[in-house]
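Ticket reopened. Same input as before:
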Amino acid sequence: MTVIDLLSYEDALASYDPVMGLEVHVELGTRTKMFCGCSTELGAPANSQTCPTCLGLPGALPVVNAIGVESAIRIGLALNCEIAEWCRFARKNYFYPDMPKNFQTSQYDEPIAFNGYLDVQLEDGETFRVEIERAHMEEDTGKSTHIGGATGRIHGASHSLLDYNRAGIPLIEIVTKPIEGAGERAPEVARAYVAELRELIKALGVSEARMEMGQMRCDVNLSLRPHGREKFGTRSETKNVNSLRSVERAARFEIQRHAAVLSSGGTILQETRHFHEEDGSTTSGRIKEEAEDYRYFPEPDLVPVAPSREWVEEIRASLPELPRVRRNRLREEWGVSEHDMQSILNAGAIDPIVATIDAGAPADQARKWWMGELARNANETGRALDELPITPAQVARVTELVAAGDLNDKLARQVIEAVLAGEGDPDTVVDKRGLKVVSDDGALGAAVDEAIAGNAGVVEKIKGGKTAAVGALVGAVMKATRGQADAGRARELILEKLGVEA
Amino acid sequence: MPGITREEVAHLARLARLELKDEELDHFAGQLDDIIGAVARVSEVADQDVPPTSHPLPLTNVMRADEVRPSLTPEQALSGAPAQEQQRFKVPQILGED
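Engineering reply: fixed in the latest deploy. New output:
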């Protein structure tokens, strides 16, 4: 492995200005493929979801999926784009076994949506506008498995195996205009853009946009130019950067790599590069020595798409509140800082918290559980918050029990743990484990008497006026009741029995 | 007059993964040049006001509902494959790209 020279990030930014272009592919959540009725369900046996159309067999004719078109328009509108009055599909011709038709049905010079923008919020609250060049409709490719190579990679493989279940699944490709002026924050802007786009796509209900499952993939184009120069430098294109963190790392790495090459008098090759998760580096892929020759031409088997203005307006009227607007509204309602809100967003906790509040919990309690106990559990078990086996309604019930004084914090935590462990809903757990706070004076009284009897020294202090020392006795009561005592009531009882005014 | 050169035919043959011998290149270049020349005569009668036609029928918005239809079985899908393995299409080593 060759060592790649890097300039320090600070030095790179001192001499150069980064320009980025981001291409994001989103797999739509339609039930069927873009041009045929094959199911898009994940996890099916290999090649069980194909037909003559998506296999490119002679004579088969594609018909476009209406929900695919509607989803494209929804995305376009949410990105503040213009929607084409009339546009066509085009064939992008290339020979590669992942596409059995030997062309990908895409759009070329007539994208369905164009000229938009997405405002993204950086961690400190600053807003950065990313201009959108276009969003167009196309289809996904099949899945290759390389056999015989060392690590399942293509190098050294003796042959490859193709599963075409994924071939033809609708994709929307969203392309930014060159992102200029982000300076040292370019990697952060790239990450924030992809994060915001993912939230937007999810809010629109057109895809789950799970990056770890390849439902959303990002290519990072990056070039540097010396400060003060308008003309862009030569770019590299880092393909398939598939997590938010990786997007930021890839941009940062390329800035440092380009800067090292340029400052030592070298030139950047226009090439595709591969990103490596392990160390955040990129390595050279294919050199684009000539403009790619895809010989695009209008797809003769599909008629033009001409969305009526009535339809477009109908879709526009049905758009949900956009994530950034919603986030800012919630942030004010909850009274949290920009930074806290960013953490909540990063944890994927916004929707669970909202649902918990809707189920009756106070906002601060809902936030406390999802960002505390539950976030920790999700982290430890490698799950997303919404994958935990606890519902917002169950969390809300726990907060209700706490508010009613039936559970204290410690017991509530045990209840949450038990629900996560599959022991049933909160009330069942409380019953089965006998986890109610002990606040009836009979049961508590005995523990209080015991604490007083066993801590003569402390009792003296309290009687002598040091009422703060009562904490030690409350602690003893809690210990004796294994945490199930109502601490407030225990304190009252102790002071009462000692005849001391609180 | 638009035509096609022997180099362009060779380039297209490479893109289409067709192996053509020298004499075939000569042969096809000549034939394709004739065909393109003939088709190009259309533009002698089609003036600026006639847009290029990609579809002969004045249809738009032919769409289908997002409803699942039966697929082929894997056996049917693979029935025309020259080679298969693990219920997948088996293809030779892929070169020149990663």
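The CA atoms of residues 15 and 299 of chain A lie 46 Å apart. The radius of gyration of chain A is 30 Å. Please confirm and we'll close it.
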